[in-house]
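Section 5.1 Outputs to date
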Amino acid sequence: MRIERLRVYGRVLPNVGAKRRTSWARLLRQVYLVIRSAVLWIVSILHFFPVCTFLVILGMFIDPRKNDRPQRWFFRNVLRLAGVRFQVRYAPGFDPTRTSIFVCNHVNIFDAFVIYSAIPQFVRGLELETHFKIPAYGWMMKRFGNIPVPKDTNNPAAFRRLLKRAKQALDDGISLIIFAEGTRTRTGRVGPFQRGAFVLAQYTGYPIVPMSIVGSFEFHRTGSWMLYPSTITVYIHETIETKGMRKEDIDRLRERVHRIVAEPVERALGLREDMSGVPDTTRDAAASRR
């Protein structure tokens, strides 16, 4: 008769066979995830480069606003091919036709694809000016309307130029997306926000729309090449008005937006003990709005 457990002096010894089976199951799952990640990367890259090249060529002849639909299809397809299950939740008062400054947490290199797939309007981002010097890519970013961010934003003259460029884009009806942390998270938590996005909002008077990317840290982490099965949910929160705001209000605005962005992220990570008092002001998005 097979003995699964042995009682010695009142103690129950662990089932060694069960432990071995568990170890083998973990090993097999890890092998599966490695193979899965490799295949997804290959498929995504094979899709990315030819389609991206086509969009660059298309951008030579057609204004980016007029070919926004194929660009959005391209970004969504990259997510699908990477194995992402994707959903968006919009706040009831969100107006997709209003030019705004979207402020979002930064998780990994897929954030641009996630955000562009989630925001139902023409939107562009701020990017380090050194990226604009990269052959082909830099030209594409400039052609698409992204705004170069100087390396030394502490330089008053450089920062003023950035504010003017961003204001011009907003005045032209182009909404902007800003990763207010200025770097990607290494822990999954939302890091401190820098002041730039909120100085811009106060300077221009355009509203801020906080955004939260939830589930992306479980999907892919900076410093790793693994892609894990995950559902990414984007929360587009209620619009915050900034017209008439004083400079003295900038830090309070930054704290408020950080709190809004961080709440669903930390709730998903289980970092807050009691989130029962936090109202969920969002609703599932209809497919037509995406």
